[in-house]
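At this stage, I wrote out one protein, both as residues and as discrete backbone shape codes, and that material follows here.
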Amino acid sequence: MSKQNFHFKSLFCKSMYLSIALICVAFLYPDFSFAAFVDNGDGTVTDSSANLMWQKATFNDGQSMFSVSATSYCKNLVLPATGYTDWRLPTIDELKSLIGNISSFPDTKTDQGYWSSLFTWDPLHAAYVTCYLLGFNDGQTISCTNAEYADPYCPSYIRCVRNAGLPTRIINLSGNIRDSSNNPGIGVTLTFGNNGGTATTDSSGFYTKTVNSGWSGTVTPSKGNYKFTPPSSSYSNLTSDMPAQNYDFVASNKAIIVAGGGNYSTNALWNATKLNTDHAYNALVYQGYKPENINYLSADSNLTSPADGFATNAAFRDAILSWASDAGDLLIYMADHGGNGTFRMNENEILLASQLDGWLDTLQQTIPGNVTLVYDACESGSFIGLLIPPTGKKRIIAASASAGENAIFASDGTLSFSWLFWSQIYGGLPFYQTFLNAQNSMSLINPQNSLIEADGDGIPGQKADSEIAATVRIGDQNISADDFPTIESVSPSQTLTDKTSALIYAENVRDSNGIKKVWAVINPPNIAYSPDTPLISLPTAVMYHVGNNRYETLYEGFTAKGIYRIAIFATDNKDFTSIPEQKHITTVTQTQDFSPSVKKGDISGDNQVNLADVISGLQILSGITPSQIRCDYVTSGADVNGDSRVGLQEVIYILQGVAGLR
């Protein structure tokens, strides 16, 4: 055995309670002055000879400390602040090892003892049968027999210890997850392999996770369709904190298409709606959207591809809040009937702008990118002031018509904001340029003012709106090798005094794919506008090729007094339609009124009541866009019962006339 020096001193502790004896005896102790103690500079001292780490400071809360609370204190101690958690009360022998090395623990107390882990609790008498403390006033081991639980005469101090050989130091890994635009990756789950657990990024894209010192494993981030760089990170035997463990991510953009209304019998707009929503789907796919990243909701009772589900408010809500929750940017396109702050989702459901706003607010707390809404319906602009985004988020809204205005879906839907917009997106034009072209085109044809709002203040058409909208990108913007037909000039404005016909022509109509058709859309002076009723029918005239890229027609329907606005279009063999410009517009002014008296039931406007009107009426009742309907139907006097609609009563009235019963 190695030589050890021993010291001895007696100690007496008296009890204030006469009925309980307190016996204190002193023990011999060895001299451990040869131990190697190193101050770690972080509130701990290591005894390398015993492989122990000590709490440097003495703990005392100013009151008596008894062994139950002393044990709890050590168990809950974390030292240093981001360090070890396996602290405990020392044994008597471990406490003795500090004697002779008190200089490493300058605040050591000598007026009371220090708790050891050696004690026995008597639950029957609520007292310690035996407990051992160590005093450092020349070194004393104190055995307190039958020490009462609440005896204020036996206070004591605490100095916790841990086995330095156990790798239980706490290591912190942290970092940020962001995309190339510095948008945060919110709600990303990071899985720490080798039983390391998981962490989730907060609203700023930040994560933090603690592991034990010596941990080895792989960290893998994941969220929906996000792609991360690096895809994972591997670590081996960590012994220090690892800040700035960052990841970049790319989230696929998603789109939701809503073909509202449906094919119910009185929805004359349905064919135009479906034509345009299908057109939007094809344009997005052509521009790089994967079909699985497009959620197409349709109110068609006979659901067919590419539609994914029936359009209901609940389905739309779930598409936004659940399906799109892992999107980068989200694009939404809605088309059909609209009203002041409303959209007809299907025959039986109306969507309120306030509902949509709430869903988008929730979504935009979790996705990194922007929300863009393209909305084509009567009064679609009424949504703008009701869709204010959360602070710090961007929401771009392109509305086809202002509040109080109707929207055109003429020529089976090909003469509409939607058709012009999606045709140009298909062709690879930028979002904002596409909007401006469609906006200009519709204003030339009809008093329809399209709006753009992007800066979140609910006021469209400002400079900031234009600047933000110019940064929006839909898909890959692949420039199509196919161009749009061009029209160099059209016939000049004319004035009629004694006739109802005029020659309309277009010159130098060209396209590399060949011209499929050229036609004129005629906006008469007596047309009736209703803000909640889309304009689905305008007079048209097919124009014929007469050589040298010139197309013309003699139109004989200038019968009403006033100014007719005429827009000329060309479509090529790949169904690309020319973009209307001011130079494609002409006018014809009729100075006299040649309008014949309108007969009740004259739905087609040909001044006759016959089976053609019956067919038009039945088409409308069946939800089919009629082959011909007069644009002034509401104000013309052709309506039979005065309800401003084509219905069964009109069809019966016409059949009775055809059969000679009227």
Summary: Residues 270-286 form the longest helix (17 residues). Residues 6-163 form one domain. The first strand starts at residue 6 and ends at 7. Residues 1-34, 146-153 have pLDDT under 50 and may be disordered.
